[in-house]
Sequence to fold (285 residues):
Amino acid sequence: MNFRKYLVLAGVTLFASSGDAMLSQGMKQVGNVSIHHLQSVIFAILNPWVAVGIVLLLGFFAAYMTALSWADLTYVLPATSLGYVLLALVAKFFLHEHVSPLRWMGIALITGGVGFVAGGPALTERTEDSSAPLPRLANPARHGAPHSGVVPHSEEIEL
Amino acid sequence: MKTLYTWSAILAIVFASVVGDVLLAHAMKQVGDVGALFRSKGLAAVLRRTLENPNFLMGVTAMAVAFFSLLFALSWGDVSLVGPAAASLTFVGNAVAAKIFLRERVDRRRWIAAGLVAAGVALLAG
Fold:
């Protein structure tokens, strides 16, 4: 894990939380979507908050895909949850909202959980023994190395 | 009735997200390190190899289903319920799915982390 990779994880966090915040703001303006008028959900995209939220979530998606290309799913996911911590801190210090003790406890738990994962290896080490196809999804690219641009395994094992 | 709608939408989000996350994680492992690929072959190669991956396309479809379920859920229920409930359930679901389908080594450290984060996210709803 080098600095650039932590930057990508930070991007995952920032884009996810800001995008979610925009979407939630926008959908509050759009109002209830009736189950009988499902097409109204399409028009929700016309709301500027929803539109900006979608753009931010596209940024999140790019960063997320990049992270998943060199780290385990169970390593990357906790990073996205740091966004909730960020939102609570923004609410407290910039919007001067009241953050209840229960929420502070939630923040502490998430931060602790992310710290737990961040201390471990980012990618599951694959030995040749475990190179058999995955149970449901065949995985030829990983060990067959048909693509020339793939990183050597030694870099994947790094912290 | 609204509660039932909300929770159905939340469960739909969780299921679609877990399926999508697993497919996308698998697809990107097949694509390989995007940073290294970008430096050696350029952005076009990254995009082409990613977009040609069938697991990626199925993953994106699942994510789209999750996204629209989220829009529905948000219009029926509070964001303070929907967000944390869907996120924390997705966490635990992903840890299980990553272990079974992606064969990630979800060791004690990662189980504890998944539990802590899920609990923390749930508390944020309070």
